Fold:
Amino acid sequence: MKKVFDKAAIDKIAQVLNIVPKFKGNNYRFVIINEEAQTHISFEIYPDIPIGKKIGNLISVYTPNSHLQLHFCTGFVVSELLGEVTFIGEWGGQLSGLIIEKVGGCSLYANVDSKLLSGDFTQLGPEVMLSGVALSLAEHILPEAGG
Structure:
């Protein structure tokens, strides 16, 4: 299994989100505070931990009103332009993506057919198109794409 979250990866994520993570023994904790919107979220990256009988990566997001997790994160993509990090989990042609924004936003797309990412978005309904567009940034890191 390729190591996804080494020190360089954590530094890259921190740079794009403009925050300094705290190492907590088995995880890195990030806290994003948006004073203008008076909101905050925090998330933790657990690299290479036991999840059931396997070793994998876990991303856990906490907001005042929700708790989201992405198990077996297989990669991530940072976007300086958008000010966000997209964490990806891929299994059997299905893709889940957890997007953390520098301004404190968070989106989750689960079990998306990875074929949607390279398809014609104009042929999709708007409710489906959004997930394809949001996750298309990560298409190059999927196993089928050689990433």
